[in-house]
Amino acid sequence: MMSMLEATGVSKSFGGLKAVLNVDLSVNKGEIFGLIGPNGAGKSTFFNMISGAIPIDSGTVIFDGIKISGMKPDRICRLGLGRSFQAAKNFAGMPVWQNVLMGALFGQKGQSYAQAMSAVDEVLDFVGLNDLRDKMVPDIPLAYQKRLEMARSLATRPKLLMLDEIMAGLNPSEVGEAMELITKTRDSGITIIMIEHVMKAIMNICDRIAVLHHGAKIAEGTPEEIAASKTVIEVYLGES
Amino acid sequence: MSTVVNIVIYGIIMGGVYGLISMGLTLQYGVGKILNVSHGEFLMLSAMTSCVLVKAGVHPLLTFVICLPAAFIVGFILNMTLYRWLRNFSKDEATFESNAMLMSFGLYFILANIGLKIWGTLSKSYQFYSYPVKILGATIIVNRLIGLGIAIVFIIAFFIFLNKTRLGKAIRATSQSTTAAAMMGVRINKTMAICFGTGGLLAAAAGILIGMSFSPTAQIGLTNTVIALIVVVLGGMGSIPGAVLGGLLIGLVGQAVSFFDTSLVTVAYYLMIIILLLIRPKGLLGR
Amino acid sequence: MKWSGLKKEFQYIIVAIIVIFFAFVPLFGSTYAITLSSTIMMYIVMASCWNMFSGPAGYISLASGAFVGLGFYASGFLSTRFPLPVLMLAGGLASLVLAVIIGSITLRLRGVYFTIFTFCLVELVKAVMTWYEIMVVRKRGLNVRNFGPNAAFYAMLVMVVIALAVVVIVRKTRFGMALTGIGESEDAAAHIGINTTAYKVSGFAVTAFMMGTVGAVRATMLNHIDPTSAFNMMFSFLPVLMCVFGGMNTFLGPIIGAIVFAALQYNLITKIPQIYMIIFGAIMILSILFMPTGIVGVYERVRKAIENRKIQKVGGHL
Asked: What is the extent of the structural domain holding B36?
C-alpha cells in the first residue's frame, strides 16, 4: 500500500518539557487514521509540527513523496495537506460562505473567483452547512464552527485532512452525523488523520489507531488490537 | 586603559538608568498587555519637575518623595479609568492590545506637548555633587555614581517586592494567566493598575536620576521610550531580569559607540536588535 | 469587508465628488486654499494607505514618519536636477526598499514587534540622517526647489487618485481578502495556503511607497528641510488618528478623518502650537474608547437605530 504520510523520529520540546518524543508514524493512502491519548500527550503538538504551525526540533516528515518538514504552513497546504485546529480558528469577521471561499481561493494556485465560488457551494453541501451559509461565524454553534473549519480545509482540495477533535461538544446523534461525514470524505479519496476523544467514533471508523502518551507512541494497530492492548488500558485507567 | 574603564563605568551607570525605565515598560506590557509608548514622557515630566523643585530649594533626594508617588498615582488612575474601560469594551485580547497601544500613542502626544508647553525646548539642570573623582584612572562625576547607587537600590527593591511580597506574587501570577490569577482571588483590575502605576514610578525614578546628572529638556521623552523599547525587545518582552540585562548591555554598547561617534548610537542599538531578532526572536531572556 | 451601510457605488460617487471638487480649487481658490487642499490630499493618501494595510491585517505601523521623511530627503537630494515625478518615484522607491527590509525581519514575528520596530524606525532614520549631515556634509538641512503651489497641488491630486484606486483594487481582489484573513486569524490564513509573510510585506511596502511619494511632494512645498522636520512623529501619528476617528477598515473613514484633521492642524498649528496636539491626543483616546468603529460606525449605528424604530412603529400598528 502507498504511504501518504511518513513521519520519522519527530520530536519537540518546549523549554525543558519534551512534548513529542521520537514519534514514527506511517499513514497509508485512503486510510482513516486515529490518534488518541490522554490530555497533554502531545497529539496537537504533533499535528502542529506536521502542518508547519511550529518548527520541528528533529525528525523528518514525508508527505506524498515530498519532504515537508521545515516548510511553511502555506506551502504544505498547497501541497495538499489540510487541517482543523483544536480550538476552532475561523475568520470571525466573515460569513460562513466566505470562510470557505478563502480556502477555495488560496488553497490551490490559479483558482478563478468563479471556480472558487462553485467549490464553496459544493463543499457547503457536502458538509451540510448550507443552511448557515450567510451567518457570521460567532453566530453559529461552537460545534459547527469546527465543521466550518473542516469545510474550509476541504475547499483547499487536500489529499490528506487532519482533524483535531472535531466531535468535541457534539450530542450522540451529531456524532453519528460527523462519523458519516468523515467516512464520506474518505470515500471521496481523501486520507484522514483524526485526533478524537469520542471512543465510539474512533473505534468504529478508524482503520488504524496510534496511541500517544507523554509524547511517545506507546501502541499502534487496528481498533481491535488497541482495545485489547494492556498498555493502552493501563494508560487510560491511570494504572501506570 | 582609562578610556576602557571610562566606557565601562559610564556604561554601567547608563545601564542602571535604562534598566529602571525598561523594567517599568516590560512590567506594563507583561502584566497588562499595554505597550506604553508614552512611557518616556513619565520620565521627562519627572526629570523636569525634579529640576524645577530643586531650583525652588527642595533637596534633590527629596524630589523622589514627591515625583514618584505622583507618577504612581497618575499611572494608577489612567489604568483604572482609560485602560480598564478599554479592556471591558474590547472583544478579545488582540483587539485590546492594539487599541491600548494606540491609546498610549495618544497619551504620548498629550504628555509630550504638556511638557513642551510648560518648559519649551530649553534644558534644565542643577548642581549636585558635580565634581569628579578618579577611579582606576578614569574621571567620573560623583553624582553619576550616586545615581547608579540609587538605580541599584531600586532594582533590588523591586525584585524583592516581586518575589517576596503578596502583591508581587499576585503580579507575577497575573502576568502568567489573567484568568487563573482571577480564580485564585487576585483582584485583576487593581493589580494591573498597580503595575501600570509602578511602571510610571520606575520611569519617574529614572527621570530624577537623569535630572541629577544631565541637563534634561522637555524633548527627552521619545528618545527614552525608544531606548526602553529596544532594551525590552533585547531582554525579552515581559521579562524583568531581561530588562535589567538588556539595559546594561545597551548602556555599555551606547557608551562604547558614542566614544567613536555619538550620533551613531541609535543606529548601533537598532542593528543589535535586528541581529538578535534574526537569531533569537524571543530576546535574550524571553520565555 | 465593511462598506459602512452606504452602498458601494454611492461611496464612490461621494469620493469622486470630493476629488473633482479638489481638482477645481486652483481655478478659483487663493494660494492659501491651494496649499490647504494639497495638505489635505497628502493626508488622504497617507490615511487611506495606512488603513489599507494596518486596517485589515491588524499590524499597527507607526513608521509613516520614516517614509514621509525619506520622501522629503529624496526631494532634497534630487530637486535641483530632476523634475517632480522623478523625485516622487525616488522617494517612493526608497521607502519601499526600507519597508521590505524592515517588514521581512519583523512581520514574521508577533504584531507587537512590528509596532515597536516601526515606532523606533522614525528615530533611527532621523539619527542616520543627522549623522550624515553632521559628519559627512557638515551642513544641517537641505534646500528644496519649489515647483510652485500648482505643481505640488496637481502632484497630490494625482496621488490621491492613484491611492484611492489602489485601495479599491486591493479591497476587491484576493490581496485584500488575504490581508483580512491574516487580521482575522493568522494561523487559519497560513493553513489554507496564504503566504502570510509575503502578503504582509508587500502590503506594508505598497503603503510605504505611497507615503514616500507624497513626502517628496510635501518637501517641495517647504523650501527647507532638516531631519527634525522630515522624520517627525506627527506624520506617524496623524494617519492613525484620522483612521481611528473616521473609522478603521472603512473606505470613507480615513478620507473623512484626513479632511477634518488636516484642516484643523493647518489652522491651529500657528495659533495654539502645543495645545492642538494635546487636543488631538485626547480625541484619539476618546475615539478609541467611545467610537471603536469611528464616525462611519456612528453613522451606521444611528441609521440602524432609526430603521429599528420605524419597524417597531409598523409593528405597533399591526
From this structure: 2-279
> What pLDDT score does C277 carry?
95
Q: Which CATH code for domain A1-80+158-240?
A: 3.40.50.300
Domain count across chain B = 1
- CATH number of the domain residue C163 falls in: 1.10.3470
CA-to-CA distance for B109 and C285, rounded, in angstroms? Answer: 11
Q: How many Å apart are CA B54 and CA A103, to the nearest integer?
A: 65
Residue B213 has pLDDT above 60, yes or no: yes
For residue A165, pLDDT beyond 50:
yes
Indicate if ipTM > 0.90.
yes
Nearest to C223 by CA among C87, C90, C79, C88: C79
Average pLDDT value for residue range B255-270: 89
**Residue C128 falls within a domain, yes or no?**
yes
B36 domain-assigned: yes
Of C26, C2, C18, the C-alpha closest to C160 is: C18
Confidence class for position C5, pLDDT limits 50, 70, 90: low
Mutation target vs C (from A47, A86, A91; most C CBs, 10 A cutoff): A91
Chain A, nearest residue to C108 by Cα:
A72
Residue among C192, C201, C249, C293 with most chain A CBs within 10 A, to mutate: C192
In a domain, C170, yes or no: yes
Of B108, B110, B263, the CB nearest to C127: B263
Residue C247 placed within a domain: yes
The 8-class DSSP code of residue A136 comes to B
> Where are the domains positioned within chain A?
1-80+158-240, 90-157
User: Who contacts A137 (Cβ-Cβ below 8 Å, separation ≥6)?
Assistant: A90, A91, A92, A93, A94, A95, A96, A99, A145, A148
Is B202 within the bounds of a domain?
A: yes
Q: Using an 8 Å CB-CB cutoff, list chain C residues near B82.
A: 285, 289
- Which secondary-structure segment (H or E) carries A216? strand A216-221
| Structural domain contains residue B102 | yes
CATH code of the domain containing B274: 1.10.3470
Q: Please state the rounded mean pLDDT for residues B264-287.
A: 87
Q: Do the Cβ atoms of C294 and C257 come closer than 8 Å?
A: yes
> Given phi > 0 = left and psi -120 to 50 = alpha, else beta, which region is A169?
left
